[in-house]
Design brief:
Four Helix Bundle (Hemerythrin (Met), subunit A); 5 helices; DinB (chains A, B); homodimer; mainly alpha; Damage-inducible protein DinB (chains A, B); two-stranded antiparallel ribbon; metal ion binding (chains A, B)
């Protein structure tokens, strides 16, 4: 069996998506980031707070099996700049924990955040897919606000 | 290097997401599936037609390196039932082509649809991520229509 995807490629894939999400946060006007919503859904900032609750704590959990409690509280104080700082801090933390994740962890069954039982690769893909899902919703918010979102394939700096 | 994800697991991941998208198609009232949109975006049926243009032709391309031209024309004739039939036909075609994809194809550079240069695993992840992205947009449409979408983690029959 050859390697379909390496561990480094997996990290790059994740961080590439996170870079695009960062651009989407930047594209929102500050007011709408914290106030605009459709159909009773959360604001994009609230969705981002969920993503922040998962990303770095998730990487830590994969690396150490120490799972923090999911804490989706928005700590930005309605500041876009602060939300982006929190995002960048998560980026660094993921990069820090990543080398500590053992190769066999991806096929191991684990209990993410003490409650979600699945194999490591499924858990990681769930983190990424959940981000893509909510970011896609952010795109609709931007379109409804008549703002052009970044291209979906732009995952580089 | 251990295997982070096997080829079978990759297929199951993809088809699991496709099953959830199928549920989202089913959840739309037929009229709104073909008519409703927000912010000048496409209808969900039009997005689904893009996904259909990519999925089975994409699996065929990965397996054979024969790439059809991207054809996103909606062939359902505004029938939800027909759209679901096209979806199920794609599901079968993907399952048919999958065993013909060689293991080393995932790390090979290829020109998907004759125009998108990337490694095989990136191309495949792009297919999946693009579907998650648009399905997330379908969720907003459903919420705006005051309809409860299926749970994001429901990827089983």
């Amino acid at each position: 069996m050859l390697t379909l995807i390496t561990k480094d490629q997996f990290l790059n894939h994740w961080q590439g998506h996170r870079l695009l999400t960062r651009k989407v946060i930047e594209t929102f006007p500050e007011k709408e980031l914290f106030e605009f919503s459709i159909g009773g859904m959360r604001t994009f900032a609230q969705m981002v707070s969920e993503l922040l609750a998962i990303a770095a704590p998730g990487a830590k959990g994969l690396a150490t099996d120490i799972w923090e409690e999911l804490d989706e509280k928005d700590r930005s104080g309605n500041s876009k700049e602060r939300l982006l700082e929190l995002w960048d801090k998560s980026t660094d933390e993921i990069n820090l924990y990543w080398p500590q994740i053992s190769d066999n962890r991806f096929q191991e069954e684990l209990l993410a955040f003490g409650q979600y039982k699945d194999k490591g690769f499924c858990t990681l893909l769930y983190f990424i897919d959940n981000e893509i899902h909510h970011r896609g919703q952010g795109y609709v918010y931007l379109r409804a606000l008549n703002i052009e979102p970044p291209a979906f394939w732009e995952r580089q700096l």
